[in-house]
Write the C-alpha cells for this entry.
Amino acid sequence: MAEVEDTRKEEPVDSVGPSEGTYKLPDDLYIPPDALIVILEAFEGPLDLLLYLIKRRNLDILDIPVAEVTDQYMAYIDLMTSLRVELAGDYLVMAATLAELKSRMLLPRPSEDEDEEDPRAELVRRLMEYEVFQHAAEQIDELPRLERDVFPAALLRPDHLTHLEPPRVELRELLAAFAEVLERVKLRKPHAVETESLSVRERMTQLLDRLASTGGYVPFSDLFSRSEHRQGAVVTLLALLELLRDGLVNVVQHGFHQPIYVAHASSQS
Amino acid sequence: MPPRPMHAASEIKQAIESLLFVAEDPLSKEQLVSLLKDSEIDVDSGRLPQEVEAALASLHVDCAQRAYELVEVGSGYRFQVRSEHNKWVARLLLHRPRRYSRALLETLALIAYRQPITRGEIEQVRGVAVSTQTMRTLLDRGWVRELGVKDLPGRPMMYGTTSTFLDYFSLRSLEELPPLRDIAESGSGAMNDEVVTDRD
Amino acid sequence: MPPRPMHAASEIKQAIESLLFVAEDPLSKEQLVSLLKDSEIDVDSGRLPQEVEAALASLHVDCAQRAYELVEVGSGYRFQVRSEHNKWVARLLLHRPRRYSRALLETLALIAYRQPITRGEIEQVRGVAVSTQTMRTLLDRGWVRELGVKDLPGRPMMYGTTSTFLDYFSLRSLEELPPLRDIAESGSGAMNDEVVTDRD
C-alpha cells in the first residue's frame, strides 16, 4: 500500500529536491555524468563513496583535502535526496563527521605540540582498512567459482540406487525453504519498484534497440540526449540500471578517468 | 596455420566428453551436433554428424580402462558407473547425510504452493537451474507428479503434488498448508504484497 | 556372474573413481578410506590410507588425456571439467551464473580473513549495516557458519567460513586465499597491523 502512494508522489520529479535549478543532469552536476551510473548503482556505504571520490580525483588518501571532499560528499547526498533515493543513516553520520572534520581543519593547529594527532587520522585509518577488504572482495570474486568457472564432472547414478532410504523431511523445513525463496524473490524485485514507470520500461526498450543496432560499445554519455533535460536523463539512467541489473547490457570502464561504454549483452559473447 | 582434421576431431571428442559429464540428462546425437555447430571448430557443419558419431565411438573405446562406460539409452548417450561398481555407489548413498538439499526442498515448496508449475517457472523464481536429479527424486518419492504439458512453446511439463505428499506431511488438503503470509512473517520481514497475492 | 578377479590396487582405484564421480561433494582421503574399509577388497586396513593416496595419484595421471581433471579442494577431491572446455558447458547450461553483490563479497571477505568475526566488527570496517539477507545468503549457501557467541555484552555471534566455501572457490585451505594487500602499501607509516587486526 505504502508503495502505491509513493509511486504517485513520484510523478513530478522536478518539484522534488531542495532547490530548483541546483541540479541539472547530466551537464551541470559536480559529479560528472559518466560517474553517475557508478554512483547510483554501486555505493556500499559512506566509506565506499568517500574512497571513490578520493580515487577519482587521484587525491592522496593520507592528505585528504577535507573541504573539497566534504563538498563533493554533500553534493552526492543532496543528489540522492533529490532523486528520492533513501540513504542509510550511516551516510548521514559520515556527513556529520566530515562537517566536524572540516571545521577542525580550519582551526590553527598548535604546531609546538608534536603529539597532536592529525584530526583526519581516524578517518584515514578506516578508509585504508576498508580499501584492503574491498580489494580482497574483488579478488574473491575472481577466484575460479563453481557454477561459473568450475563444473564438476558427474556420472548419473544407477537408477535403482536412488531409492535407498530416502531422507526424512519435516513440514517446517519445507516452509522455511519456501520462506527463503519468497525472501529472495522479494530481493530480486527491482529495487526501483517505486520509481519504475512505464517511461522507464519504454526507455529500456529504446536503449536496447539502439545498442543492438549499433552492435558494439556506445559511449555512456551518448545515450543521453541534451534536449531532454533532467527528467529525461533520470529516466535514461534508471533504464540503464534496470538493464544492467537484468544483465541485458554490459558496462565497461578501463579505469577511473576513462570513459564508460555500454553494450548490448548479447553483442559480445 | 592450415586446419588439421585430426585437431578438429580431438576437439570434438573433448567437447562431447565435457558435455556428457555436465549434462543432467543423456544427450542425443542431434543435441550434440547442435551444441557443436557454429563454433570455432574447423569442420564443415555438414560433416558434423559423422564427426560426432566417430567421437562417440572413440570415447566408448577410451573408457574401457575406466570405472565408467558410455551407454546409449532411450534419449541419447550418457556416461555411467559400470554396474560392477554399484556396490560402492550404494555405500556412498548409505553414508551420506540423511537430508535433502535446500534446492530440493525449495523446489518441492514451490510446486506445493504454485502448482501447476513448470520447471522453467521454478527456475525463474529460484534463479538457478533445477537439476533433473532433483525432479527425479521428487517424482520417485511420489510427492510430485506430472500434470500434463503447458500450451507454450516447447510444451513444458507442469508439476503438482500428490496425495502421498499430503499424507507424508499429515495434511488433509493443500488448504492446510500454512498461508504464505504467515510463512513470510515467521520468516523475516514484511512480505511484498505482490508476491503474496500471486498465489491465486 | 562371479566378479572377475582384480588386483587390489586396481580395484581400489576403480572404486575411488566411481565414488568421486557419483558423490555430490568432494570426498576427502579419510572419507574414501572409510568407504573402502570392511569391503571384500583384499587389503590390510592399516595400508588403506597409502593405497588410497596411490590410487588418487594414479587417477590424476590417467586423466591427463581426458576432458576432466582431478583436483583437490577444501573438503577433498573432485573431478571437474578442464576450464578450457567451459565454452561447451556454457552452451549446454543456459542459465546465467549468479552474480554476487559487493556487499556480499565484502562481508564474505571480512569473514574469511578475520574469522572469528562478529557482525558488529564487519559493520565497523565496512561502515554500513550488514543486511540480514546478506548473512542469511552466506549461511544458506553454506559458505559461512556460526562459531559461537563472543564473550561481550550482547553476546554477539561469531562467524567463520566452511569447507563448502573452500570447495566453491576451489581453495584447498584458507592459506590459499589471495594475500591481503598490506594496509601500509596504501601509504601510511602510522598504520600497523596491530591497529588493524586488534579491533574492539
